[in-house]
Specification:
The structure is a single chain. With 324 residues, the chain is mostly beta strands. It contains five helices and 20 strands. The strands form five sheets. It has a seven-stranded antiparallel beta sheet with strand order 2-14-20-16-17-19-18. Strands 5-7-8-9-10-13 form a six-stranded antiparallel beta barrel. A two-stranded parallel ribbon has the order 1-15. A hairpin with a 5-residue loop joins strand 18 (280-286) and strand 19 (292-297). The chain is elongated, with a radius of gyration of 20 Å.
Length: 324
């Protein structure tokens, strides 16, 4: 058990423009000297960059196939899930077929692998099929130009919904909600954490209606705690988070918010009710310690407190994180 305040969102996304010779660009995992461009992207689910800097609405890496794995020298490599909730270990210089979020084919190369907190994280490169140019698909974090990714079983669609898939998995980059929620304590490869992890991805992006639409700002501080005690409510004062200044916001399930006290950005609750008009009704749900909702899911089971996995407290607007 632990308590934690967390940063949600990501301020910028980056795309590498490579200047290497065409022959070198045709191979993955080479030393490169990229120039970088950026634009605001909002909060991320996968943590991947858009696939083309000239197309701000272009899609991101969404899934990777188990079948068809091969080494750089094109030798086939057989992959399979070792059990119900783990993704197979991937060796460097493995190349896999993947798909962008609009279903277009891409190739993904594993350049490096290292252990991190009981899991393996990977440095990747990606290219659109037919292209000679390989780039790291992950949005960099802080001063890092090469973010890492976790291999997570299941695939997510554009609405933020997770589906089991026996033939595909997800490379979740560290700046996206899928990987962040695993780092915060909800291990999606643990059967008992699958629903908690999915609820966390909704919470991290303030996806109240469960449609994939985010209602947060970049780098907002949120205090998270859950009904099972994996993460507990933060009670300690620190330079980065003051529990006394945070107020209750909402509760979460795998398909979005289960109850609302207010919105993270300060939007009227009515705006959320209008966005998903069949979801919430006025009603109180008391979680103790002053954490009380004013609107709850229509389902009777949720009104009795069932079906809620996570709760969040945050700074009321316009207060934001105390560091970039």
């Amino acid at each position: 058990m632990r308590s934690a305040w967390i940063l949600v969102g990501c301020a910028l996304s980056f795309t590498s423009t490579l200047s290497e010779a065409a022959a070198k660009d045709s191979l993955p995992c080479q030393d490169r000297s990229p120039t970088r461009s950026h634009w605001p992207q909002g909060t991320l689910l996968w943590g991947s960059t858009q696939l083309a800097a000239t197309q701000p609405m272009s899609t991101v890496l969404a899934s990777v196939k188990l079948d068809g794995a091969r080494t750089v020298d094109e030798q086939p490599r057989r992959l399979r899930f070792p059990n119900d909730h783990e993704v197979p270990a991937l060796a460097p210089l493995t190349v896999l077929d993947g798909a962008s979020s609009d279903g277009k084919p891409v190739e993904v190369a594993v350049c490096d692998a290292q252990g991190s907190g009981g899991a393996t994280r990977y440095r990747l490169e990606l290219r659109v099929k037919g292209s000679a140019e390989w780039t790291n698909p992950c949005v960099p974090g802080g001063q890092s130009q090469a973010s890492w990714a976790l291999a997570v079983r299941g695939v997510w669609d554009a609405t933020g919904a997770r589906q089991e898939n026996a033939k595909a998995f997800t490379f979740a980059c560290e700046q996206g909600a899928i990987a962040k929620c695993a780092q915060w304590g909800y291990k999606p490869w643990n059967a008992e954490h699958v629903d908690l992890h999915q609820a966390c991805t909704r919470m991290a992006r303030a996806d109240y209606c469960g449609t994939g639409r985010s209602h947060t700002w970049n780098d907002n501080v949120v205090d998270l705690y859950d009904s099972t005690g994996v993460v507990q409510r933060e009670t300690r004062e620190s330079p980065d988070f003051s529990p006394a200044k945070a107020t209750f916001e909402s509760s979460w399930s795998p398909d979005g918010a289960t109850c609302l006290a207010r919105t993270r950005k300060g939007e009227p609750i009515q705006a959320i009710l209008d966005e998903c008009p069949k979801r919430f009704v006025p009603g109180a749900m008391d979680f103790g310690g002053g954490d009380v909702c004013t609107h709850v899911r229509k389902e009777q089971s949720v009104k009795r407190g069932k079906g809620t996995w996570l709760n969040t407290r945050s700074y009321p607007p316009p207060m934001k994180a105390t560091h970039p």
